[in-house]
Amino acid sequence: MIERLRAVGTAGLSTALRRRGYHDVFLDGVRPLAPGMRLAGPARTLRFVPFRPDLFAERGGGLNPQKRAFDTVGAGEVLVIEARGRADAGTLGDILALRARYAGAAGVVSDGGVRDTAAVVATGLPVFASGSHPSVLGRRHVPWETDVVITCGGAAVVPGDIVVGDADGVLVVPAALAGQVLADAEGDEARDAWIAARVAEGESIDGLFPMNEAWLARYQASR
Amino acid sequence: MIERLRAVGTAGLSTALRRRGYHDVFLDGVRPLAPGMRLAGPARTLRFVPFRPDLFAERGGGLNPQKRAFDTVGAGEVLVIEARGRADAGTLGDILALRARYAGAAGVVSDGGVRDTAAVVATGLPVFASGSHPSVLGRRHVPWETDVVITCGGAAVVPGDIVVGDADGVLVVPAALAGQVLADAEGDEARDAWIAARVAEGESIDGLFPMNEAWLARYQASR
Amino acid sequence: MIERLRAVGTAGLSTALRRRGYHDVFLDGVRPLAPGMRLAGPARTLRFVPFRPDLFAERGGGLNPQKRAFDTVGAGEVLVIEARGRADAGTLGDILALRARYAGAAGVVSDGGVRDTAAVVATGLPVFASGSHPSVLGRRHVPWETDVVITCGGAAVVPGDIVVGDADGVLVVPAALAGQVLADAEGDEARDAWIAARVAEGESIDGLFPMNEAWLARYQASR
Amino acid sequence: MIERLRAVGTAGLSTALRRRGYHDVFLDGVRPLAPGMRLAGPARTLRFVPFRPDLFAERGGGLNPQKRAFDTVGAGEVLVIEARGRADAGTLGDILALRARYAGAAGVVSDGGVRDTAAVVATGLPVFASGSHPSVLGRRHVPWETDVVITCGGAAVVPGDIVVGDADGVLVVPAALAGQVLADAEGDEARDAWIAARVAEGESIDGLFPMNEAWLARYQASR
Amino acid sequence: MIERLRAVGTAGLSTALRRRGYHDVFLDGVRPLAPGMRLAGPARTLRFVPFRPDLFAERGGGLNPQKRAFDTVGAGEVLVIEARGRADAGTLGDILALRARYAGAAGVVSDGGVRDTAAVVATGLPVFASGSHPSVLGRRHVPWETDVVITCGGAAVVPGDIVVGDADGVLVVPAALAGQVLADAEGDEARDAWIAARVAEGESIDGLFPMNEAWLARYQASR
Amino acid sequence: MIERLRAVGTAGLSTALRRRGYHDVFLDGVRPLAPGMRLAGPARTLRFVPFRPDLFAERGGGLNPQKRAFDTVGAGEVLVIEARGRADAGTLGDILALRARYAGAAGVVSDGGVRDTAAVVATGLPVFASGSHPSVLGRRHVPWETDVVITCGGAAVVPGDIVVGDADGVLVVPAALAGQVLADAEGDEARDAWIAARVAEGESIDGLFPMNEAWLARYQASR
Predict the structure, then answer these.
(1) For residue B88, which of A42, E84, A14, C29 has the smallest C-alpha distance?
(2) Going by beta carbons, is chain E in contact with chain D, meaning 3 or more pairs sit under 8 Å apart?
(3) Contact by Cβ (8 Å): B130, B112
(4) From CA B5, how far away is CA B41, in angstroms rounded?
(5) Distance (Å, rounded) from C-alpha E137 to C-alpha C119?
(6) Calpha distance B78→B162 (Å, rounded)
(7) Whether residue D129 has pLDDT greater than 90
């Protein structure tokens, strides 16, 4: 199912989610680190809080929550990082990206910055972030905890949500809805592809998009 | 003339407009959807207002103003969309882009988002927008009316204005000024190309850019 | 040393600067005009103030401070421009970029806009800026003075500071610290490259990043 | 009914609107010009577009749409101005405020700036705006048209909508919903006032806010 | 000690915290709901996450975390709310403020909005927030959990931190530092008051602020 | 003349400046620290640059440029501070305000924050700033130099410019234009006051504002 979610993409899923009252599932303000990146997979989460010396002393060193998250991310998972939308500090770099890549992670989404950008891109790991920045995370963040409900890009992300990202953006699909949302989205996409083919042939969109009964009949006959 | 406006580009036109007191003709905050996109053509306009259930019920369905605009955009025209600068909802997608492309439209400028980004780029239609977003327009907008004076990217756009876009940005040239502005801009560009050639040969810009009388004489002699 | 600073890059330098209490050396909000641009070199500075007719009359014409700065930038130098972060006016164009390129300048960093973007990229000069814009600088700026301490991208820049830029961003290294900061950064980079190689082989980062004593011993033995 | 809408206030109306799917009816970013201002009344609308010399020549002079709107605003009406959220130019001043006050207007809401702030406050007219600014509207705006659907503070405003403003903010109630929304809001308010009285007596809010069956029974018995 | 922290105020505490490396303890973007409000007390915390239907269904109803926090806030405590800086929804209203007031809470700090503003002010409870808004919290938030480390106004807040607010803003003092920070701040304040008295008598600040040895001797003699 | 500039106020001066092509003279984003503050006087200037340890060591201590500026500000002068619009650090506090007050300064305008807000207000010195903040200036700034052309609130300020501030905002009048701008503004104000009186009597603004020939004749006859 993950593969099909990745294939159908965020635009189609967004419509199916909207139909069920899910309007606020978009992780806005993040962009793929390189053109063409896509990802889909269940969310692992990591939450940063603002830098403070005592908190950094408590949780910033050694195998801190950030490093533990990257060290334990599983094959097919997407690590999602709450960095409060701040692009002025790195939230991952090349070593952590390599580790996630080695583990077979499906990607990383951070609403903070990326460090070692060129090297991170070179790992081949799909990464969506709010920008690039040379600094280490300690400039702004303390890595605080993992596997809790977080905010990323203005949306709530629950561990286990299905995260999907492509050139249109990134969104989450609550796991309980994934099956029906996917079915809807695939149906919509088949219909829209058929409409697009008609438009490419020169048809007016009047009555075709959205389809009136006549066009709907032709569409259904074509299947 | 449209072709010449497209060739001379926004930088040259901007100077000629400024000379006539037009300082606020820039559609800021929009970027080409893919590198290298350029466009020029007379403006068709489309105005969205913020989403509200009653207004969407009134004008959101069927061949609404958005769809009518895309269905009737003419060859060589540029469709300009007022979306109040919000990148958090789509304002066009692949089917509408295909339709505009089929009609021979010169392009689309929207200060909202684009949906189905990859497929829109694939149509070959030049599109300038404020970002990409998976959601449908109903998340934020009601398509309200066409062919009125609108605001896009902070500038007023009048139906029939000449819209020009390239790597520097997008601007409008009031139709009544297009001829003289073009003449000015072409003259400036010829002069600047000649200056650039001298600079590339190693000349100092002191006295050359802007040209003093001596350099002006040499320039005029060269023509 | 400049070449080595360029090679080690901003991420490594940022850590070494942080260790010495330099947290606010980042020229944020600027991006390379084309992918892959990098630069390093001592700063020349240029300060713009907001447009006002009397001030523009006094310093806007002829070989004004902007043109003088580009005409006299030396081989290997980086010209840094204070434009108050405004992307809504050009702060350099193709003729000035050509001149800097001819002089062998290492690059330009402006927290304002670039005009003639395609032509500037074509010169091959590395340029980092806050965006592109068709307008001339007189829309927002008066070129005021050169070779003073300025603000660019939120950081103070002193003439002679070493400016380094790459895909992660741009920062300044105070000249007096350049030697020790470089030494630190190269040491860190060698260590991190060795760690990355281990991670690529499948090692956990637990104990390896950061290194515990056992890993440190292996690292030191490897050198 | 207007008086009752004004009395019940925006907080109560907001809940009743939300219950009917109206989530985006808030004119955000505007504040009362002086503490304690309140207003309620049917909307008259005025739309500005960005300044451009030709458009200002066409509609900026004489009894332009701005002046006509203020000259004809009726007793009890609220004039709502679309100024694209820009606080950097005045959109009304003391003479126009006086005129509206003389006509018995219920108030003005502008998402632009106010000029002659002290004198406008002295007229006693309730005004909500995005700030104060000394400049005339021609710095940023052309007064374009009246009595059309506009955007103000991020919400669509239809002529005839009921506009209500108080210390919490400003919102619109679609005219067709005003009766039922008011009834709901008054019911809620009576209940909340009763709850508040209990809380002021020291009751825990557990079971009381929201009310469980026991508290509901006591509430209903009290009426 | 709380009373003395409140008396010394945020400006003095800020200097003493800075001396110990605490630069990022400010809850920026919040303002007192009415002039003259001040507060000090140990922090209770409440964390909201972005609205989503399934999460709201899970934790939005009944005695949810928001209501539980207000129902159990203790005498002298300050309730601090993480609302991600969004002023476009209420995060507390008059009933909850009354409850906190009844319990003797020292105040509330929210980086979200306040609903029923006039009634909240009337309770006399000191409240600092990012603005006022008529809507209920469900427009943007799900009340998620209490008594965890949160972010408010860009700073980390730990349950038990001492929160201090006045006309200059709001900050947190880590509990372990409160004693020494207070001592420092009181010492600074005594000195600055003495300096201010000299300045009011007409002394130049040269040598006096900061004090040179001569002035320091006079100051110490005066005590 | 200063007294008359203060009396006529920023709205009237703005129109007279606009007539001469001065559109960008507004110090936007600053507000009076307490209601009713007004100021007018020639500008003294003070420029801060972003914090950096080496620069602060060089110019942050002792009688630094900030303290020297406050210590030497003359009777009737307005001290204007460039703080790059950052409200997250103090740029003056009570001791410096007292000193300026003692010297008879006309006021202070800073596009940074104010510390010790209540005490600064109590001095009676008119202060316009971008906000309040508890921190010292060293959190963000190095006091760099005085008596140079600076940027404040987005406008260029030249030492000797006449600075005028009231409830509408703050602007600068270039000294060379002050006489004629004042004459214009006083003429406009007399006319507008006469118009306002007519409007208060119930006249329509049609033909009156702006005045047609008939009203103009009556106005001139009235003088």
Answers:
(1) A14
(2) yes
(3) yes
(4) 9
(5) 51
(6) 8
(7) yes
Q: DSSP characters for D67-121? A: HHHHHHPPTT-EEEEE-TT--SSEEE-HHHHHHHHHTT--EEEESSEESSHHHHH
Contacts of D31 (CB under 8 A, 6+ apart): D128, D129, D130
Q: Which residue has the tokens 């006693």?
A: D124
- For chain C, give the mean pLDDT: 97
Please write down the HEC assignment for all residues of A115-139.
CCHHHHHHHCCCEEECEECCCCHHH
Least Cα distance to B113 among B31, B28, B10, B25 occurs for B31
Interface of C with F in 121-140 (CB under 8 A): none
Cis peptide before D159 (omega within 30 of 0): no
Q: With 0.90 as the threshold, say if the pTM is over it.
A: yes
> Using CB atoms, which residue from B14, B171, B196 is nearest to C94?
B196
- C-alpha to C-alpha distances, D120 to D6, D77, D108, F180, F191, nearest whole angstrom: 22, 17, 11, 27, 17
Q: For D83-111, write each residue's pLDDT tens digit.
A: 999 999 999 999 999 999 999 999 999 99
Q: Which of F49, F54, F149 sits opposite C144 (nearest CB)?
A: F149
Residue E158 contacts A where some CB pair is shorter than 8 Å: yes
Alpha helices by DSSP H, chain C: 2-19, 53-59, 65-72, 94-102, 117-123, 178-200, 213-222
| Contact predicate B109/B119, CB 8 Å | no
Instruction: Give the minimum alpha-carbon distance from C114 to chain A in angstroms, rounded to a whole number.
Output: 20
D70 touches chain F (CB under 8 A): yes
Structure tokens at F130: 């971008």
- In whole angstroms, give the CA distance from residue C130 to residue C28: 9
B143 Cβ contact partners less than 8 Å away, ≥ 6 residues apart: B46, B48, B59, B60, B64, B65, B66, B67, B69, B137
Contact D126, D30 (CB under 8 A): no
- Give the span between the Cα atoms of C109 and C126, in whole angstroms: 9
Residue F223 has pLDDT above 90, yes or no: no
Paired sense of beta strands D90-92 and D150-152, if any:
unpaired
Q: Decide if F184 touches E, using CB distance below 8 A.
A: no
Q: Are A127 and A92 in contact (CB under 8 A)?
A: yes
- In sequence order, which residues have a C-beta less than 8 Å from that of residue D72 and are 6 or more positions away? none
pLDDT tens, E13-39?
Answer: 999 999 999 999 999 999 999 999 999
Compare all CA atoms of chain C with the CA of A65 and give the residue at the minimum distance. Answer: C206
Tokens 């204007």, residue? F80
C-alpha F22/C-alpha C184 separation (Å) is 52
Helix (H) or strand (E) run with residue E44 in it: strand E39-50
Contacts of C219 (CB under 8 A, 6+ apart): C191, C194, C195, C211
D138-193 residue pLDDT tens: 999 999 999 999 999 999 999 999 999 999 999 999 999 999 999 999 999 999 99
β-strand pairing of C39-50 with C141-146: antiparallel
- A19 has a chain E CB within 8 A of its CB: no
Q: Residue A65: what pLDDT?
A: 98
Of E187, B131, B214, which Cα lies nearest the Cα of A29? B131
> ω before B32 within 30° of 0 (cis)?
no
- Residue for token pair 């020349």: C44
3-class state of residue C57 by DSSP: helix
Closest by alpha carbon to D170, among D39, D48, D15?
D39
Convert the pLDDT of each residue in F59-80 to its tens digit: 999 999 999 999 999 999 999 9
- Cβ of residue E23 closer than 8 Å to a chain F Cβ: yes
